[in-house]
């Protein structure tokens, strides 16, 4: 399998791409060569804490997938193995663009998978459009990215903003004594603001009374005044839309000032948050795309690959989106029945695909509009999936004992 480490000289890379010949498609349609999937991973840079083990996971994915021969190609009447060409985009959007140009013109890959993050999702897809190479991106969630009329891009954010907390609010509504009031606290960040922006209205539409909505900056350390507002308002549900690190002092001060609620929900509930909060995280709920022990399509395969890659989903919570982008691409190639970009494009358009989180369906823009998250809860120091019922590994504790 091809595995390319990051290029140490960006200038040399730019020169190489500039001098490259126009893209060739000699391999397309071949029944003898491996099917090559080109990708970049943020192995270094600001996003590396989320993705540092993904290059190894990708290598293992190909190894495990190829044990059964690879993708069945109908036109070849046989299975063809896959391989990846991987570069480190160093969490830099402009470098990612250059690397995908290289993948198209120098490496001459068959298809694209990745990149991640909305910051990459804006500038990279035009490369796929230019070279007419189908691309299944991973953690790219911003809806405007998919509204530009591009025809060669699809994305698997898990979950999407409109589906982020569907399972959670369904779970609350199913309780014998469902909550009546809610208070939102949001980190000043585009993604977390988008989540709250949607779910503030959605919660009210579901009959919950909004008692307040506070916005806080990433640098804020003293939450005393905000916590006092919570104590006065006495909401049934405290909904925190934040990445893990910025909300640590908020939760610590909520505990210290003995804040009470029927449930405290954190949209990005991670192992990194648990590591910093310790016992203060007990009883909190959150979202997770998938977790070992949950049954679904390719779940055993996922457990095998992630186990070998030493990826704990609680810490690397965005991994399933990346993992699913690989599964969706190989299914699309199989549906196409040939190593043919236009046939794969047709298979991806408004397609439906199996992943460990369930069925992922794309709309006409390439947005995976039907995938949602599972609801998790920290119980006795362990993460337990509590909803939906058919995928739960434990029972929802409500009202949360630790917040009473």
Short summary of the structure?
The chain is of the alpha/beta class and 404 residues long. It is built from 14 helices and 16 strands.
Describe the structure.
This protein is α/β, with parallel strands linked by helices. It has two domains: 10-159 and 318-361, Response regulator (Rossmann fold); 175-288 and 374-403, Response regulator (Rossmann fold), CATH 3.40.50.2300. It has 14 helices and 16 strands. The protein has helices spanning 10-19, 48-51, 54-66, 93-105, 118-121, 125-131, 166-173, 190-205, 224-233, 244-256, 271-277, 299-308, 319-336, 341-348, and strands at residues 35-41, 71-73, 78-80, 82-88, 111-113, 135-137, 153-155, 181-187, 209-216, 237-241, 263-268, 285-288, 352-355, 358-361, 374-379, 382-387. The strands form four sheets. Strands 9-8-10-11-12-15-16 form a seven-stranded mixed β-sheet, sandwiched between helices. A five-stranded parallel β-sheet has the order 4-1-5-6-7, with helices on both faces. A two-stranded antiparallel sheet has the order 2-3. It is elongated, with a radius of gyration of 22 Å.
Terminal CA distance reads 54 Å
- Helical residues, percent: 25-40%
Counted beta strands: 16
CATH topology of the largest domain: Rossmann fold
**Radius of gyration, whole Å:** 22 Å
Number of helices: 14
Per DSSP, what share of the residues sits in E-state strands of 2 or more residues? 15-25%
Supply the CATH architecture of the largest domain.
3-Layer(aba) Sandwich
The level 1 CATH classification of the largest domain is: Alpha Beta
